[in-house]
Design goal:
- By secondary structure, the protein is α/β, with parallel strands linked by helices.
- The protein folds into three domains: 3-74, Arc Repressor Mutant, subunit A (Orthogonal Bundle), CATH 1.10.10; 82-164 and 270-302, D-Maltodextrin-Binding Protein, domain 2; 167-261, D-Maltodextrin-Binding Protein, domain 2.
- 41% of the residues lie in helices and 23% in strands.
- The strands form four sheets. It has a five-stranded mixed beta sheet, with helices on both faces. Strands 10-7-11 form a three-stranded antiparallel beta sheet.
- Strand 8, helix 7 (203-213) and strand 9 (220-225) form a beta-alpha-beta unit.
- Residues 1-58 form the HTH lysR-type domain.
């Protein structure tokens, strides 16, 4: 098995066809086909289903793709690490982030990092926690900043807990319930929740849990939306409520339209964490960015209550 075969395999999957992958890699399609056939022959399995409609991964191919992406990313990082050790501060960092740490940590820090490493390209992927962790595991992300429940721990991940997230009930300014102080006063309200297709949980579960704890029955969740922007837009233009980190209602983009309802009951806690693959050491530039993020978090929020060592 060679790195060339792995690159060809990943390119075919990413492009969706042999022809498109050959064009992207600038090689003959026959050469690409031979590389895939050689890889499958060496492994003794079929990685790709071929049909007139295109290609698709077999179940074994899906598992192999995760490993192949991780290996290729590790090779790229090894090369960058050598260059950075020689004083050539070049390379790229791919990180994932959810909405709260984007505003609370990354934006205040990234400008100083870019000034320090002007030739290192930083790419930010936004999304929900489960998606970001999947991309860490398959090597597509170097690390992520995302909320996790306090008890979460995975043997293959390094998890550093940075600070406790404070969820809040978010409403439009002028909402008739904007000044209530208990979740009981919101029992008849209707809610909108972020829930990507096929995903169950997140803020929706925390709302249901709080209603159950207070013996209020089931909350009236009338809408779910794919993204934070969609959710907050809906809240701005209606009397629907949502649960999001309090800091989001204080951002310049939303502070004129949204407010946080000061209920006294607490939602299930989440810790904003820095998550990475345990087996993948950072390059020098990535380690510098991580150190800056951790230092800034401690400066603003104080030391985390509990860390899971990597």
């Amino acid at each position: 098995m060679t790195l060339v075969q792995l690159r060809v395999f990943c390119a075919v999957v990413e492009q969706g066809s042999f022809r498109a992958a050959a064009r992207t890699l600038d090689i003959a399609q026959s050469t690409l086909t031979q590389a895939i056939q050689g890889l499958e022959g060496e492994l003794g399995v079929t990685l790709l289903n071929r049909s007139h409609q295109g290609i698709s991964l077999t179940p074994i191919g899906e598992r192999f793709l995760v490993r192949a992406n991780a290996i290729l990313r590790d090779c790229e990082l090894a090369s960058q690490d050598v260059m950075q050790s020689r004083g050539e501060e070049e390379g790229n960092i791919t990180l994932g982030v959810t909405s709260e740490p984007l505003a609370e940590l990354l934006l205040p820090v990234v400008k100083r990092f870019v000034e320090r490493f002007p030739r290192v390209k930083v790419h930010v992927t936004s999304g929900y926690t489960k998606m970001l962790i999947e991309r860490i595991r398959d090597g597509r992300l170097d690390f992520a900043l995302a909320p996790l429940a306090p008890q979460v721990s995975d043997v293959d991940l390094s998890i550093e807990r940075l600070y406790r997230s404070v969820p809040s009930v978010i409403a439009r300014k002028g909402h008739p319930k904007a000044h209530v102080t208990s979740i009981r006063d919101l029992v008849d309200c209707e809610w909108v929740s972020i829930r990507p297709a096929g995903i169950v949980g997140g803020a929706e579960n925390r709302l249901i849990s709080l209603f159950n704890t207070e013996n209020l029955g089931a909350p009236k969740i009338v809408l779910t939306a794919e993204s934070l922007l969609e959710t907050l837009h809906i809240v701005c233009e209606s009397d629907y409520l949502t649960i999001e980190p309090r800091v989001l209602s204080e951002l310049t983009l939303f502070s004129g339209a949204l407010t946080s309802i000061p209920i006294r009951e607490a939602f299930d806690p989440r810790d904003v964490c820095l998550v990475a693959r345990r087996s993948a050491p950072f390059t020098l530039a990535t380690q510098e960015l991580v150190s800056m993020l951790v230092s800034y978090s401690r400066l603003v929020h104080g030391p985390a209550a509990r860390n899971t060592a990597g």
